[in-house]
Amino acid sequence: MDFSVVLLHRNPQYLQKCCDLINSEWKRSDTARFRSLESSCDQLPTSLILLRGNKVLGHVKLSVIPSIPNSCFIESVVIAHNERGKGLGTLLMQKAEDYCRTVLHLDVVYLSTKGQEEFYRKLGYIECMPISIYGSFTPTVQNSFKNNINVERISTNDIKNIPAPPPMPVKNNIISTTKTFMKKDLTNC
């Protein structure tokens, strides 16, 4: 039987099946999941689903990175548990990359993973520095006034009382639970 990769927002009849598939991997309330899935559009964010007939086998979500033009973040990739190991993840990723390159005209795709680094390396991804998909914001006096924040209320004592962040895990001495960030240049494909 043939497979197809389609845009979720053009095929809303698959919303519930897609929600169930993603929640089988990363549990979240149906309401929150539906809101996220319903935000899919032709630009970004975009949800692509892998189908065999009318059965949802996989999902990938592409999201905007405000601070990095001509790029996107592959926010989630999931293949149904009973369909793994059959090359469907590779197929879905190739179709997602094609969409990024030919429809969205993007140059680079980024993702983060825990434990699937080798899979992504086989697809041409390389490790990179962590990125933020939320853009960047540097508080300034102008931004503070615009957002009605009273900068005079912050004292140096307040800053001294902020605890230091915990130390970063050391890869060779402990099992790291941190994500590995990876990227792929689409201009060479």
Automatic annotation (TrEMBL):
GO molecular function, one term: acetyl-CoA binding
Domain of life: Eukaryota
Pfam families assigned: Acetyltransf_1 (PF00583)
Gene Ontology CC terms, in alphabetical order: cytoplasm
Residues in N-acetyltransferase domain copies: 5-148
InterPro entries the record matches: Acyl_CoA_acyltransferase, GNAT_dom, NAA80
Transmembrane domains' residue ranges: none
The protein's name in its UniProt record: N-alpha-acetyltransferase 80
